[in-house]
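Worked problem 6 (solution included).
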Amino acid sequence: MNGVNQTIVLEFFLLGLSKHHNVEIFLFVLCLVIYLVILLGNSSLIILSIVDSNLHTPMYFFLSNLSFMDIFGTSSFVPLMLVNFLEVRKTVSFPGCALQMYLTLSMGTSECVLLALMAYDRYVAICNPLRYTIIMNTRVCVQLAALSWLIGSINSLVQTILALRLSFCGNNIIDHFFCEILAVLKLACIDISLNAFVMIVAVLLVTMTPVLLIFISYVFILATILRLNSTEGRKKAFSTCSAHLAVVIIYFGTILFMYLKPKAKDPDSDKLIALFYGAVTSMLNPIIYSLRNKEVKAAVKKLMFSDRT
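Solution. The predicted structure is:
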């Protein structure tokens, strides 16, 4: 077939840090702790937002969706990655690799969109407080959250299908911890210009557009806060969006650093940065919201006190 070996790939081998087994043992312990914190922290936020009536607000509804995304996204690759840290032969089946690509890309895209929607929620709450409950009613919140999940699913489905249609010519060694889509595309033995074009368009639409919307929202938020006469009022207004702003800076800052930094001489450093983006940011989200929000602290104390009584 035009001189190209069309060997069908049934499974992929994941290099990870195979040359540094001691480092992999350390990463196993570290990532296991991080994953447990992700499950515990995000599950706790979801439960608190359900059982505590004071948290039945749009902000915590969106935060619950963010927690679900963090759990689903990390669960799509961390458990298998932990197993592979202890294995000599690190493999993932072709369907398993496809599922990893779809879920990680879907959750990442959905989270980008959701963070923009959360910025809009803070904009309405601070800049138009009298109409907040009317604008951000239950139906609107559900529709906006569903939109973020839908956009993530469509983007991921398109890119995953385009990646799976490629021929790998028997090349099945992925230089990564998991099936990251860019690492998989490097294995292709045919032209990937369509994949590259679709990916660039997707980055502009689902990454840069949310960043722009978040920036515009915070410009209006900052202008409104500075117009407040009361210092206490300014502090209260800023405290309602400080946690979200911190999450946005960490999340998008990691993305920008990962894709805009000069190419590293050691490819292992790129893998570790991708690991930080995929796992550590998901761990920090519930921690930041727990430390920065009085409502969450109050809900935790209320739940602990009610359990003792």
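Discussion: Confidence is low (pLDDT under 50) at residues 1-5.
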